[in-house]
Structures are given as structure tokens and as C-alpha cells.
Amino acid sequence: MESDKMGLGTENATSVEISEPLLLESENIRDVESENLEKIPEWKEQITIRGLVASAVLGTLFCIITHKLNLTVGIIPSLNVAAGLLGFFFVKSWTGFLSKLGFSVQPFTRQENTVIQTCVVACYGLAFSGGFGSYLIAMDDRTYKLIGVDYPGNRAEDVHNPGLWWMIGFLFVVSFLGLFSLVPLRKVMVMDYKLTYPSGTATAMLINSFHTNAGAELARKQVSCLGKYLSISLCWGCFKWFFSGIGDSCGFDNFPSLGLMLFKNTFYFDFSPTYVGCGLICPHIVNCSVLLGAIISWGFLWPFISQHAGDWYPANLGSNDFKGLYGYKVFIAIALILGDGLYNLIKIIAITVKEMSNNSTKQKNLPIFKEVSDSESSKILMEQRKRDEVFLKDKIPSWFAASGYVGLAAISTATIPIIFPPLKWYLVLCSYIIAPALAFCNSYGTGLTDWNLTSTYGKIGLFIIASLVGSNGGVIAGLAACGVMMSIVSTAADLMQDFKTGYLTLSSAKSMFVSQLIGTAMGCVIAPLTFWLYWTAFDIGSPDGPYKAPYAVIFREMAILGIEGFSELPKHCLAICCGFFVAALVINLLRDLTPPKISQFIPIPMAMAVPFYIGAYFAIDMFVGTVILYVWERINRKDAEDFAGAVASGLICGDGIWTIPSAILAIFKINPPMCMYFGPSLSR
């Protein structure tokens, strides 16, 4: 499960469900605001220097956080709320400071707040879709050696180690096409079909609330709460460092909190503020699914398979040999991921085709805003008309979007084969011909369900191109094609989500588009630079270290599977994989067919798959987070709703900030002074 970015699905695990009461609440907020007929700034006035500076700072922070999550567990919660909140805090603090000094400052509007949030999300989104924890790092020498130099289909020629300049160049040539692919359809998606884009709607509600008197006071308290837990998390990260010693077996990250026996099977609480924060943000069912997956795999399945060492696989293999237990871990995780992804892809496409071909049922079935009836408030009707007028005012010409896409596609088609020679120009061109259709499907599905299936589309491209190219370069070609596809469908869905947010906050469509362009340009530089910080400071990809980069191995194995097939899997591995693949399909089907009161307790296969390969420790941390949230909701639900996101964002951001000084210490070879280690008592 790699997500939006999970605001963003599972591949979007923290997807926000917009219920009717929530929509009514947002209408009430806008009702209050409509009484104050605010002056809407021109689109150029919505994009400010101070906003771009704040976006660059927050984009850097969130790229660091996204890389850390990508390289450790691969689960990325939505940071949209934190982006909106911290953007509000940054600019409000700056304008307040200048006002006290006697300077005249431009008022901070919700439109400027929306531009900042859009820019930040576009920037840190590239830390995910740029493949720094998946397809790009799957090309490196360590992943090649980890799979095995003698492993069929794993060739030394199919190695392309990370390089700062080629990564920046690659992102620049692939990341902008998605922004141009669906721009002409913004009115159709947002106004005609009235797709909810739940995460975009929730973000708009948040920003609108900040710019009311009551909302500003709550925002101040939320910022204070975020700052407090950020400080606690930062100090805790510093404290832990002193005991983490040299190597990977020291410190609180290896604390056998549940006993040494369970510790050997990775069941322990490792005191990570990041994972506890993820548990506070992710829905309860996601956290429980992760824990269930950990129990099934590390509690039962791996011990069972280990008992057959010497029969199912050679007993003397290393712990990271794909011909042994390690192969079962990776391929069973792949089976669950592909089963879940394939089911949801077919489901979203079916919903899309059905709803687009049957307009008579659209109003009944789509989760849309209700049209205002004659009996409802005229103020709400006026507000909706005002939104329509603002959204359509600053047009982005279709010829501009079309020519931009064609021009960028031509540049990319010529450039990508230079970076990745096995991916021929005609394969890149074919990808760009079909990409807009896939981008539309993904954007439409995201608008309906909030499930962003970016990595599923990427994996489809990976399999197809790898099998077409074959054994002579198919691995690199497939992984690069995966990146091309992920970049387009991800940025297109993000842009349409931002158009929805801009529509509800009375922001110009043109300012949304320009801020996406600026944020993407920032991300093309900031995402590789922040990744390079990790790459130079830490042992990325080591299966025994904290930065395992789990999806690197998974993506490379998928490319090899596309070429070689299943002939080299360990004994019974294919049968077990088929069982889990079918189980993923059945579980998803049950989630859709059963009533909500039952389906809310059925686990999510994608979330279950993650600990199969990584371990159970982070599942314990996330479950601690979900227990804290559950108890908090029972004690004071209003407080939990208002402040849980701020607490979680503070824990995640503080731990992310500590990564910077710890990386600098590692670069200068400054080691922690102590190693806290636990072992069994020695008998006297």
C-alpha cells in the first residue's frame, strides 16, 4: 500500500468519507460566509511571494516525511490537512509579526491559503509518484544483489543507480504531462458531474473554516497543539539517538516490549512517533487490517513455512535469499497487493462506465452535492452561483492544454530513451497516447470514491512493457514505464482534486493550475534533493536496517515476473500466492456486498499485505495510535475530531524534522555514544 498519498485511497488508506451531515455542515459554513460578500482577489493576487516561500518550506518538510515513510513501511497518510493548517499558521504568524512592527500587510485570504495547500501537495506528491521508494530505487545495485546475482531474469545490465541530476531531469520531463491532460475537462468533472472528491472537499471545508472568526480561533488552538506534539516528538527523536549505538540492533527501535520470543518475530513496540501518528490519522479499519496481516504472517504463516525448511526450500539459505523464506514473504505480499489493486481497478472502471453511460441514474447513484431546491435558502443558491462564476471566470484555453501536452510528450519521448535506453521512444509514445484515458479513469474514480489507484496503473504499465521488451532490458524498461504512467495519472487526479478545493473556496481555476505547475516544479528539485539526503546518510535498502525500502524489491520482482514467469518460485509458493490473490478478491467482494454495519469490520487486503514483508513492529505502533484515538473518541468525540489530526501531524512532523540533524550526524560519521541492547538473562 503506497498512497496520496493516502487522502488518497488504500493505495489510499486514509481516504476521507464525506457523509451528508458533513456536506450540510460545509453548506452552513458557506452560508455564514455568504453574508459577508467578500471581494474575490484576481488570480494573480492569489499567488504571492510569501505564499510560495511558505510552500517551499512546507514542501521540503513533507518531502522528508514522505521519503521516510516510503523507505520504511511504504504507508503514506494524507498530509493535506497539515499542509492547510501549517500554511495558515506560517502566513498568519508572518503577517502578525509585520503588523506589530508597523508595516502594512496584504490580508491573508482563503484563496491564498488554498494556493499554498495546492502548491505543497503538488510538491510532496512527487516524493511518492517519483518512485523514490519504489520503481526508481528498484533499479539500483543493492536491490539487484539482494534478489540474487544468479536469480533468473535478474541481470547485472539491468542496474541504474540513483543519481541526483538524472532523477531531477527525469521528473521534469514526466511530471507535467498529467497537469495538461485533463484541464479541458475541469468543468465537466467539477460542475457538470458534481463529483465530490472527498479529500478535496474536506480540505476546502477546513480552509473555509479558518477564515471565519470561530474557525480562526480553533485553528489557533490546533496550531498550538501541533507545535506542542512536534516539540515532544523532536525531543524524543533526539533522546532516542543517544542510545541507538552503531548498527541496527541497539536503542528504543529494538526494544523487546512484548518479550524476547515475540521480538524475534518482530512483535514489539518501537516507540516511533511517526507510526503512532499514522495510527491516529488512518481509519481504525486500516490499522486493524495491518495488525491482522502481521498476526497472520509473522504469527502463523512464516513459522509454519519455516518448519518445512529442508523440504520446501534449502535449509542453509541466507535470510534474504529469494529461494527461501524471503521469497515467500515477497511474493505472497505481491499477490495480496495485485489482488486488491486489480479488484478496485475493475470496480472503479465499471462504476465510471456505468455512471457515464446512464445519465438517468447519475443523480441517484453518484455521491454528489444536491442541487438547491426552491425551498432551500436563497443564500446558498447565491453562493453556488458565485462559485460557478468564479470557477469559470479565468479560463485555461483548451488549445493551450492540448499544445502543452503534445509539446511535453514530444520532449519526453525524445529524452526518456536517453536516460533509460531499453525503453524505446515508440513505447514512450504509445504510453502517452493512452495515458489521458487512464488519467481520466483515475481522476473520475478518485472523485467518486477518493481511491487514487496510481500505483495500480503503474504496475500494469510495468508488466506490459517488461513483457514486451523481454529479457534484454525488460526490467529497466518496465520500471521506467511504471514511472511514466504513475506520474501522469497521479498528477492528473491531484489537479482535479485541487480544482474541487478551489471551486469550494472561491479560488480561481487559473491560480490552481499555476500553483500546481509551481508546486510540481518545486517537487522536481526538492524531492530528489531530500531523497539524496537519505541516500548519502543512511543504508537505504538494507533488509536488516530501518530504511528497508520494501517496495524496491517488490517492484523489481514484478518486472522480473513479467519477463520470466513463475517457474523459479519456491516450492508451493505459487499455490499459496494464488490462494491469497483469490482471498484478496473475495474479501473485497464481501466488503462491497455486505451491509455497512458488517463491511466496516471486514479488513482491507492492501493494508494486510504490508507487514507480510516488512514485519509486525510498525503494526503494533499504528494499533497503539488507533487505540488512543478510539479511547479519545469515547471520552470526548468533539475534542478528538478537532485535535487528533493536529496531534498526529505534530508527531509525524517532529520525527521528520529530526531526520535532518540525524542525517547530518551520519554524513559526518558522528555515532551515538551508547548502545542499549537486550538479551536473555545468563544463568549463574
TrEMBL record:
Question: Which residue windows are coiled coil?
Answer: none
Query: Which residue ranges run through the membrane?
Result: 47-67, 73-94, 115-138, 164-185, 285-305, 325-346, 396-419, 425-444, 475-496, 517-537, 573-590, 610-631, 643-668
Q: Where is the signal peptide?
A: none
Could you tell me the EC number(s) of this protein?
Answer: 5.3.1.6
Its GO CC terms are: vacuolar membrane
- The EC category is isomerase
Any GO molecular function: ribose-5-phosphate isomerase activity
Q: What is the name of this protein?
A: Putative metal-nicotianamine transporter YSL6 isoform X1
Q: Which organism is it from?
A: Davidia involucrata (Dove tree)
